[in-house]
Every structure is written in C-alpha cells, then in structure tokens.
C-alpha cells in the first residue's frame, strides 16, 4: 500500500465522539443566548449528532451526560441511537451542580454529601450497563477557594476512597476516565488539578482507570503534547476532551485557537501508537454564540486535518535528523507536514467514503437547520446542558 493510501485508510477509521450537551443551549455565567431549534430531549440531541456523523463519516458515537440526558429506558435510548446511525458513548457524571455540592462532592467534609455523590457515580455505572458504554468520564469540580478552608490531604484521602469504590463496581470492558482541570469553579485548590494527580490516582486504582486530557484544562503555555506522550508511554491515556481556549476553559471549537498545538498533540498520539480505538477522541465544547451543529462539524473537520498532517510526517527523515542532532532539519520535517494543505486529501477521503467533500456546505444545503426550527418550537430550556 502506498504511503498516501495508508494515510487515507487511517483517516477513514477515525472516530470522534461528540458530546450531547454541545447540541443544547449553553452559555457563560453571564448569559445563555438561547438558539431556535435546539434539542429538547436526549433523542433530539442524538438526531442532531446523527447529522454530524452522516456528513463527516467519523463521528459515530455520542457522549451522554447524567442527569442532563436522564431517561427511563437507556436500552431504548441506545436503540434510538442505533436506528439513527450512531451509538451511545461515554457516560459523563455530574457532581457539580446540586446545592449539596457547594463544598465539593466526593471530597466534601460531610460524609452524607460524599455518599450522595458516590451513589450518583454508581448510578452512572448502572447506566453504562444498560447503554453498553465502555467509558465513565469523571470530572470533579471539587476544590477550595481559600487557604485553610479544608485539609488538602484529607480531601485526597476522600477522593481515593470514592474512586476505589467506583472502580470496584466497573464490569468487564468498562473503564473510568479521570479528568483533571487546573482551576474553576474552585479558585484556590482543585482536588484533581493536573495530569500528575490524575495519573497517581489512576496508577493506584488499576488498569481500568486512565486519564482524560481536556485541552482547555491547562495553565497557559503548558506543553500538552508532552503530557500526551508521557501518559501514552505509561498506558494511562484514556482519551481527550478536545476544545479550544484563548484564556481558560473556553470550550471553543477545537483547533480554532491553536491548530499547531492540535497537530503537535495528534503527532504524539500517532507517534506513540495511540491512534486506535483504545483512546476516546471526544469533543467537550459549548457553542455559545455560534450555531451548534455546524460548529461541531467544523470541530470534527479540524481534528481530521490535524490527524492527516500528523500521519504525513516523514518519520524516517525525522528520525535521521533527530539522531544526528540536525535541529533545523528535524524541525523542518515536522513543519513540512504541518504546513501541508490536507483539505484536498480529506475531500478525496470523503468522496471515497461516499460523502460530500465539504460537510459544512452539505449541512447548509440539507435543510436540517430550518427543519428543526420548525419542529422544535420552544427549544430546550436555557442553561448549560439542561
Ligand atoms: C468541565 O470543565 C469538564 O470539561 C467536563 O469534562 C465537562 O465539561 C463535563 O463533563 C460536562 O458534563
Ligand atoms: Zn472536559
Ligand atoms: Zn472543561
């Protein structure tokens, strides 16, 4: 197989998971700009996600969020998804928006609150049993706002204890993916603030526990691709929450702020043998002012472009330049791949997959945007993922 044929074949296997909450109204703490036609139910979110997959061919699964996507019958929801050409993906827990969680959830000083949070996490695993999901994604807003507010070590002990109980509940083929975030909503100390803390907990738990790298969850200037390379080497990279940031956890379209960083991340994924279904390539975004579905399509396309460039790196020339200490040549080889316009290649890949080469234009022509506005009068309640 020629190299280009191999790159095309690899791009056709790509799988980017879209988040259910990205289809609904969202905003910031200042304002939610509600949009017409947004989904009112988990089923309508899946119908929108199915459009993204139908047009891109590489977005086959949809992450759910509990309670925002709570239904009476998860097996029926899984069938609804399959009937629309997609599958249910990761289950996202939520221990951050009940009033009880003001001082934390599983790290809270009150054992009663910790029990409530743990019961929610265990409910999420029950839901995984019903949906057939592989991954439980855990992000904890837990933290403190002032020095002295709580005991930093005791909070780690509480975290360890709860994670161990959830880990014990996991069934065969199920994983827990622990996500870190350096700040927000806690402003002094976050209980899972960085990759090191997440890695240490996952190491203690066992092989079913891995780390999620949310690209918006690092201090400015962090070398995220180094974290990716290191976690891959330790077999502890479970997946990504892809998005873009200019300043904090902005949750903008991935690749929109720093496409070069996205390319470097995908290069380390490919270099480290991580371009497989073992890694969950998820989006985690909120589209506050832009139309939801085309923004998600753009994000998927941006991941495809970064991946295509990463797959085009001349690894033989790069290796030679690195081994001989030829700094300029090594950098030039990497930049050569990054500077390649891969849009024609991806258009060919889409046509070979029986898709329109331009998913955004195809969406615009599809009439879906008008259809859902007409059908979904009185869209989803404002509020993040409500
Ligand atoms: C929060 O900032 C994290 O990125 C979470 O991963 C995400 O927003 C949450 O999982 C949505 O439920
Ligand atoms: Zn995230
Ligand atoms: Zn986030």
Automatic annotation (TrEMBL):
InterPro entries, A to Z: L-rhamnose_isomerase, Rhamnose_iso-rel, Xyl_isomerase-like_sf
A GO molecular-function annotation: L-rhamnose isomerase activity
EC number: 5.3.1.14
Keywords recorded for this protein, A-Z: Isomerase, Manganese, Metal-binding
BP GO terms, sorted: L-lyxose metabolic process; rhamnose catabolic process
Enzyme kind, highest EC tier: isomerase
Isomerase among keywords: yes
NCBIfam families named among the record's database cross-references: RhaI_grampos
PANTHER family assigned to the protein according to its UniProt record, in alphabetical order: L-RHAMNOSE ISOMERASE
Protein name per UniProt: L-rhamnose isomerase
Organism, as annotated: Streptomyces guryensis
Lineage: Bacteria, Bacillati, Actinomycetota, Actinomycetes, Kitasatosporales
Gene designation: rhaI
């Amino acid at each position: 197989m020629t190299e280009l044929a191999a790159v095309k074949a690899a791009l056709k296997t790509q799988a980017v998971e879209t988040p259910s909450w990205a289809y609904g109204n969202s905003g910031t703490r200042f304002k939610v700009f509600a949009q017409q036609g947004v989904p009112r139910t988990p089923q309508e979110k899946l119908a929108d996600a199915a459009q993204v997959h139908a047009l891109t061919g590489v977005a086959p699964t949809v992450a759910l969020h509990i309670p925002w996507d709570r239904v009476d019958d998860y097996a029926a929801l899984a069938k609804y998804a399959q009937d629309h050409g997609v599958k249910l993906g990761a289950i996202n827990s939520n221990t951050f928006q009940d009033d009880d969680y003001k001082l934390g959830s599983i790290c809270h000083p009150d054992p009663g609150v910790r029990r409530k949070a743990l019961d929610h996490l265990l409910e999420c695993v029950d839901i995984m049993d019903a949906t057939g999901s592989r991954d439980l994604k855990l992000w904890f807003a837990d933290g403190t706002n002032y020095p002295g507010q709580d005991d930093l070590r005791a909070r780690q002990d509480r975290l360890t204890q709860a994670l161990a109980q959830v880990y014990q509940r996991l069934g065969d083929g199920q994983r827990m993916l622990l996500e870190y975030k350096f700040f927000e909503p806690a402003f002094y100390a976050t209980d899972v603030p960085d990759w090191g803390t997440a890695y240490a907990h996952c190491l203690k738990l066992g092989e079913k526990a891995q780390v999620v790298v949310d690209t918006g969850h690092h201090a400015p200037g962090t070398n995220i691709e180094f974290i990716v390379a290191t976690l891959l080497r330790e077999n502890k990279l479970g997946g990504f929450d892809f998005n873009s940031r200019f300043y904090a956890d902005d949750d903008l379209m991935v690749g929109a702020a720093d496409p070069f960083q996205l390319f470097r991340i995908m290069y380390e994924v490919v270099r480290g043998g991580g371009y497989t279904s073992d890694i969950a390539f998820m989006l985690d975004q909120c589209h506050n002012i832009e139309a939801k579905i085309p923004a998600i399509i753009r994000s998927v396309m941006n991941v495809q472009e970064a991946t295509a460039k990463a797959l085009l790196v001349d690894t033989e020339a790069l290796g030679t330049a690195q081994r001989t200490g030829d700094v300029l040549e090594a950098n030039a080889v990497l930049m050569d791949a990054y500077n390649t316009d891969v849009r024609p290649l991806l258009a060919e890949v889409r046509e070979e997959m029986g898709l329109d080469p331009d998913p955004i234009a195809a969406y615009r022509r599809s009439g879906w945007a008008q259809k859902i506005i007409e059908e979904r009068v009185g869209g989803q309640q404002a509020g993040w993922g409500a």
